[in-house]
Amino acid sequence: MEHVFLLALVIAFWEASPVVTGTSTVSINVLNYLRGDLNLTVHCKSQDGDLGVHVLPVYGRYQLYTNVIKSALFSCDLSMRDGTIVYDLYRYERDHIRCPTQCIWDVKTEGLVGLSEDAAQSEIFVNWRRRAN
Ligand SMILES: *[C@@H]1O[C@H](CO)[C@@H](O)[C@H](O)[C@H]1NC(C)=O
Predict the structure, then answer these.
(1) Which long-range contacts (CB under 8 A, 24 or more apart) does 20-24 make?
(2) In the chain, pLDDT over 90 holds for what percent of residues?
(3) For atom 13 of ligand 1, which residue has the closest CA?
(4) Does 21 or 91 have the greater pLDDT score?
(5) How far is the CA of 77 from the centre of ligand 1 (A)?
(6) Residue of the nearest CA to atom 12 in ligand 1?
(7) Atom of ligand 1 nearest to the CA of 37
């Protein structure tokens, strides 16, 4: 009897675990930490289409959500006064372990910094492509 109860408990937790069911969601967050009060323009496309252009003031946050599924992809153009970055802000293969619930992208004057929820994994750093003068 005790074993049946334990088994039921194990199954209950198994069912409750979002990683196991494959239907968990992850948030992708873009934060504007540019110096000099510069707006950041973010334009992302997902596997399902164009998500439009968003202008973020300094300290503003742009948040996207997706189900953690193999086709999940956010391909984004970041643009500020002095430069641009084109980068995938979410790719299932790279990110489902690196940031299972929350992917944070700090946009800094030095470049784009991708934080990891897994302390064992290093940050991602992407340089600005400077605008030609
Ligand atoms: C930043 O964006 C806001 C809202 O779109 C706009 O009013 C403001 O003029 C912009 N600032 C700069 C420095 O471009």
Answers:
(1) 22/68, 22/69, 23/67, 23/68, 24/67, 24/68, 24/100, 24/101
(2) 77
(3) 38
(4) 91
(5) 18
(6) 39
(7) 13
* Residue 115 confidence (pLDDT) above 70: yes
Those residues with Cβ within 8 angstroms of residue 104's Cβ, 6 or more apart along the chain or in another chain: 29, 31, 114, 115
- Lining ligand 1 with CB less than 6 A are 39, 55, 57
The pick from 34, 38, 39 for probing ligand 1's pocket by mutation, whose C-beta has the most ligand atoms within 8 angstroms, reads 39
Give the tens place of pLDDT for each residue, 59-108: 999 999 999 999 999 999 999 999 999 999 999 999 999 999 999 999 99
CA of 109 relative to ligand 1 center, distance in Å: 17
pTM of the entire structure? 0.81
Q: Which atom of ligand 1 is nearest to the CA of 38?
A: 13
